[in-house]
Write a structure and sequence with these properties.
This protein is of the alpha+beta class and 244 residues long. 30% of the residues lie in helices and 29% in strands. Helix 1 crosses helix 2 and helix 6 packs antiparallel against helix 7.
Length: 244
């Protein structure tokens, strides 16, 4: 089963987080859904600093619905690049949306195949026993500065500023996107930065290891982010592929 909980941030008129599960698109709501036999499970977080973040996240997920059973990583990557080109063209038609942009993190599932796709700072984790392992890397200025050894600059920067995304009026911003096959998993957790910037991995593990329902676990994670001061849009998707 798949458990989804997504909430609009404090003082936000609309959520820029959008979720796709199979053929169902969700925003600012909760649901429990079966794992699609052939489809996407993903979260897109519209870039808040760019006008049209909500439009961008919805646009990308709606266009994912046009992808039917991509045969292999290269085909899926090409389809995502095509969607990015469409998003940029959409921004060129409407000058108010010229810089609209979004992250994207999730998986395409078909039978035993699992393709991971990621760009931006939404995250994917897999659960191994009682522990979580982050399987995506944040495309952020902070992460880049850390990797280049500029630790003082990293601590002083805006930790949420992303370096790569869909859209943004520039196709090169998708250059760091990666699409790869991943192995089977028991549980997969997807989060937007309104969650993982406020709830550390230890607390995520504690919540996922308790005996509550999937719905309660998702809501506990969002409540923890809220209690820690998150005023951003918040999304958590828990995919339970197998019983532990």
């Amino acid at each position: 089963m798949i458990y989804v909980a997504t909430r609009v941030g404090k003082h936000h008129e609309e959520s820029e987080d959008t979720v796709l599960v199979g053929e169902i698109i969700l925003s600012n709501e909760e649901d429990t859904l079966p794992i699609p036999k052939d489809g996407f499970i993903c979260v897109a977080d519209g870039v808040g600093g760019n006008h049209g973040g909500a439009c961008a996240s919805l646009f990308v997920l709606e266009n994912l619905l046009s992808i039917t059973s991509p045969r292999g990583v290269d085909v899926l990557r090409d389809e995502l690049i095509r969607i990015n080109d469409l998003l940029i063209r959409e921004g060129q038609v409407n000058s108010d949306l010229s810089a609209m942009a979004t992250t994207l993190t999730g998986v395409f599932v078909r039978d035993t195949e699992r393709f991971l796709m990621h760009v931006g700072n939404t995250r994917a984790y897999i659960k191994q026993g009682r522990y979580l392992k982050q399987i995506t890397q944040d495309h952020t200025v902070y992460n880049w500065l850390q990797k280049t050894g500029r630790f003082d600059e990293a601590e002083a920067c805006n930790k949420n500023e992303i370096t790569n995304c869909f859209g943004g009026g520039n196709a090169s911003l998708l250059s760091k996107m990666y699409v790869t096959e991943i192995g089977d998993f028991t549980q997969l957790l997807l989060t937007s930065d309104g969650v993982h910037e406020y709830v550390d991995i230890d607390l995520l593990e504690d919540i996922l290891n308790d005996n509550s329902s999937g719905e309660d676990k998702c809501n506990s994670i969002l409540d923890a982010a809220l209690a820690a001061g998150s005023d951003d849009d918040m999304t958590v998707i828990l995919v339970c592929a197998k019983e532990e």
